[in-house]
Every structure is written in structure tokens, then in C-alpha cells.
Specification:
Number of domains: 2
Order of helices and strands: EEEEEEEEHEEEHH
Structural class: alpha+beta
CATH topology of the largest domain: Nucleoside Triphosphate Pyrophosphohydrolase
Distance between the termini: 44 Å
Strand content: 35-45%
Radius of gyration: 18 Å
Oligomer: single chain
Largest sheet: 7 strands, mixed
Number of strands: 11
Length: about 180
């Protein structure tokens, strides 16, 4: 079991319109796992943000190693929302930390990462009027900031040549739609 992890018991609680029996099975540093009513396994994960930055036909992202996938991924600048932080403030912070850029942010949409088993919501923003901003990547992050042609990137992901996240694909598709391109 990872350091800082714990296993807990069960209790009844109100969830929306339902009363459920909740069994806490795992509590780690970032995620918790609970079983609801003895049948639904739910991964609880803090909400996150991602930021689309577009310049002409290119989109900005970061390539980084992802141990969970066993490979490097290209993703939109993204990260967790800190306690007490708004999604917009988190997007501004993550964009500056990962790319040293800032700008005016517009919300595209909040989406669930995988609603069949996780409560994680990702707030997708689009940055406009981008300028230099101060920011330092998180300690230990290995990021390579890259502009990629949106059409070529879409095709590379579809062909399995590049790994990415679903919210990054949504951002790329949004950029392509703005350009009037159907991949």
C-alpha cells in the first residue's frame, strides 16, 4: 500500500436524492476508492483543468512521461485544482507553470473524465491573447513544451502513434472546428 494510504470502514450517507451505504476501501494521497451500495466502485479524484492554446493551425501542449500508461504522452497544459482554488485560477496557474504563458481564459466546457467509475471533472479552457507569464513547473515534472499541427496531431493520435488524454482530444477537436477542418 502506498505511503499515506489507508483503508476505512463503511457508513450510510446521503448522495443527491439517494441514501447509499458507502464502504471506503482505499484512501491515498490523490485518489480514494469507495464501494456504494455494495456494487458500484467509485474512484474519487480531485477536479482538474486543461487549457487549449491555439496559434494558427497549431496547438500547444506538453510531452511528459506518464507511468500509468507506460509511455510519454502529449497533452494540453493541465493539472489539479487546489483546495479553495477556482477552476479558472487553476487553469491560469497550470498554464503559467507548464508553459510560462498566460492570457484571457474562456471556459469551453466542464466534462467528466470517466463518469462510469470516477467523479473527476475536468474544466477545459481556451486561452486568448497569450503573453509571457511567470511560472515554475512542479518539482520533478519532466515537461517538453511543444507546438504541434492540429491536423497532424489528430491523425497521429488516431493512428496510435501519439498517446494523449480524452480532454486533450476534445481540445484539439475544438481547435479543428474553429478552423473549419474535419479530420
Amino acid at each position: 500500500m502506498p505511503r499515506g494510504a489507508s483503508v476505512r470502514g463503511s457508513r450510510r450517507e446521503r448522495s443527491g436524492r439517494l441514501t447509499v451505504v458507502r464502504e471506503d476501501v482505499f484512501r491515498g494521497k490523490i485518489i480514494s476508492v469507495a464501494v456504494l451500495d455494495g456494487k458500484w466502485e467509485v474512484v474519487e479524484h480531485p477536479d482538474a483543468v486543461a487549457v487549449l492554446v491555439q496559434r494558427g493551425g497549431s496547438v500547444l501542449g506538453v510531452t511528459q512521461p506518464r507511468p500509468a500508461t507506460g509511455r510519454d504522452t502529449w497533452e494540453l497544459p493541465a493539472g489539479l485544482i487546489d483546495a479553495g482554488e477556482t477552476p479558472e485560477a487553476a487553469a491560469r496557474r497550470e498554464l503559467a507553470e507548464e508553459t510560462q504563458l498566460g492570457g484571457r481564459l474562456n471556459l469551453i466546457a466542464p466534462v467528466y473524465a470517466s463518469p462510469g467509475f470516477s467523479d473527476e471533472r475536468i474544466w477545459l479552457f481556451e486561452a486568448h491573447d497569450v503573453t509571457a507569464a511567470e511560472g515554475t513547473p512542479d518539482e520533478g515534472e519532466e515537461l517538453r513544451v511543444e507546438w504541434r499541427d492540429a491536423v497532424e496531431l489528430w491523425r497521429a493520435v488516431a493512428a496510435g502513434e501519439v498517446a494523449t488524454s480524452a480532454v486533450s482530444m476534445l481540445g484539439i477537436r475544438h481547435a479543428l472546428a474553429r478552423m473549419g477542418v474535419t479530420p
